[in-house]
Amino acid sequence: MPNPWLALDLGTDPAERIRQVGNAHEQFLSGDDHPQKIRSVVAESWRRSADALASPDSTAPIELSDGELETYRAAHPLARVLPIFRDLLGGLAEDGDHLMAVCDADGRLLWVEGAGSVLRAADRMNFVPGARWDEAHAGTNAPGTALAIDHSLQIFATEHFSRSAQRWTCAAAPIHDPSTGRLLGAIDVTGGDHLANPHSLALVRATALAAEAYLGRQLTPRASSGRVAALGRNEATLTFGGSRRRLGRRHSELAVLLLAHPQGRTGEELGFDLYGDEVSPVTVRAELSRLRRMLGPELLESRPYRLRAELDSDFGTVTRLLEHGRVAEALAEYAGPLLPGSDAPGITRLRNIVDGQLRAALLNSRDRALMRTWLHSPWGTDDLQIWEAYARLLPAGAPARPLALTRIRQLAAEYGLATSLQRGRN
């Protein structure tokens, strides 16, 4: 069976394949939603691209520029492995025919390197640092599609959705934080049709694996025997002893509370954290007993109740990163509010602490890119204070400024407030 991630089967004539796929692309644009003789991964990407883009002649937008780009990529985890990318792929980028590109998890190009003539050709389609090359903004392309499907692949010539990119062939592989599995971005090689071979795909995949191995040695904050993930979900997941389990809502709350209090917590204290003044000692003991049976005495001990194993957590990672001034990494790690469906007093307090620390760091950073990421998230879209701070940082003629001011007026009206901009504090 042919490898679905490779663009060309052995013995395929590249020129004939370009013509064949180009015809299918035009038929697809004319309304044929199921193009023939096209790899399924490409056909699915074309459909996603057509839903997102107004035209196959759309150009990838530039979202980060000048100092804003420098600040953002300097703080990005992939900056740590840039020497690995250059060592393994730099030869290709320097041969005059290829580009090496690195993007973040949203498809924003952080670095694009190669010979001057190739860079100038790529510039004509906005394949430049700071441009947004995810599928929603640039259509089918190797780095953007690798992010969308979380798999390495090649995109060959006319397989690109955007016509301006169809003279290129590219191979890309996603890169993850090995300690959390979080998608960090992708590594890409872009060049001519000769890149459509198994070696280029193997090379970018090997480069991604080398980067992940290095990050595994550098980013792990401390040795731990397990991890709890509780951000952006109502039920936490616990990874421990080689297995992963999903905790119920009450057990999720207890696990988070015990993580937040490594010195231990009495039954009475946990009862107040869970129920406030309406604490029922019998109910608390029953919940703790069930949790202890589930986790086992090797993980949970009593008198006081505390976790015996060294467990890491996603919310703990966010706060540690913030303590070290790594705001971009903390924001990338943040998957949403802590157990958002919980109204337990102890959880509500912890949730407010984590959110407050992150929001304060964003405001203090004065980084428009980071603020924009927060504001475009489900939990940040109604954040009036950060919308106002973001608007103040935008130049008067910036295209995003009218949109920001409109959102500020909407939120101020909903909250019954006069905005700081209206009060003339900007």
UniProtKB/TrEMBL annotation:
It comes from Paractinoplanes ferrugineus. InterPro entries: GAF, GAF-like_dom_sf. Residues 101-212 form the GAF domain. This is Transcriptional regulator. It comes from the Bacteria.
